[in-house]
Amino acid sequence: MFKNFNWKLSLRLGISMILMGWFVFSINWTEIGRAFAVVSYPWLLAAVFWIVIAVVVSVHKWRLILRAQGMRLEWGELWSIYWAGLFFNNFLPSGIGGDGMRIIWVRKITGDGPGAAASVVTERILAAAGLALVGLSACLLKANPSPEITALFALLLLVSLVVVVFMMYGRLPGFVTNKDSKMARFITLFSGHGKLLAEHPGTVISVILWSAVFQLCVVGVNHCIFNGLHIGHVGWLEAMYVIPAVSAAAMLPLGINGYGIREGAYITLLAATGVPAALSFAASVMFAFLVSIFSLWGGWVWLRGREKGAYRDVGIEGL
Questions:
Q1: Domain residue spans in the chain?
Q2: Could you tell me the pTM of the whole model?
Q3: According to the model, what pLDDT value does residue 316 have?
Q4: Of the residues 23, 51, 70, 194, which has the maximum number of CB atoms within 10 A of its CB?
Q5: Where on the phi/psi map is residue 170: left (φ > 0), alpha (ψ -120 to 50), or beta?
Q6: Rounded Cα gap, residues 143 and 154, in angstroms
Q7: Residue ranges of the chain with pLDDT lower than 70?
Q8: Rounded Cα–Cα distance for residues 225 and 250 (Å)
């Protein structure tokens, strides 16, 4: 009966539901209602602008990685794939989510599953490095930053760089390379694509910097939301400090798409700037709402591709 039950997904879903339920029952909804009643729509439109720019940057840096690993896809193809991945992340949560969708779609186009997986994993690792760079920069510029948060950013940067250096120059153990199995072959080919990055160190540095630009776009989204909710005293520098820390917390595989974890991080980190818990929760929900609404376009892209037959096998069942 429980043979095919996804315990991991159920546990993550349960954690998100418990945390969100706790916030829902503990937050001052009257205060949230007042904030939404006077929300500034021009600021929300500006937030939408930053979301689109963030996706443009993401597609660009992913394309740089793919080219360095020997896979050349058209920019328009990657644009569609990335939006479809966002849709899966927000509306069809699974154990793999949007990253799995991107891997499957690129594999269908190129026929290279290990290469597709390597490109997405590399992009994620370098994105973490870019996030840490922005956070550390804010810690250096901010008066009295938290030692714990500074250490978090430093550790994230160190781990990200160690992993990517291993992908570029590390060697797989013999028990993997000498084993004749489907998984061993996949890992070996995956590693081979990682080593191709060693021939393009400039690309790796460029992607880290573009990842920092992406994180600044996420900061821009939140800065506009803060102003839209009339908590504009949280300026750019403070947002550069808080939002990367929120993003790092949301990366923890403890919930579905960061729900619950992200809201808790908003409330905890913004409390130091004098933002009430209700407004912090409202800002987090507004961020998730805007990203989710615009990721619906990714669902249309996916459905259109399946109807045309070009990507008929790219679907939920593939995850």
A1: 9-297
A2: 0.87
A3: 41
A4: 194
A5: beta
A6: 17
A7: 1-13, 15-16, 19, 22-23, 92-96, 253-258, 305-319
A8: 18
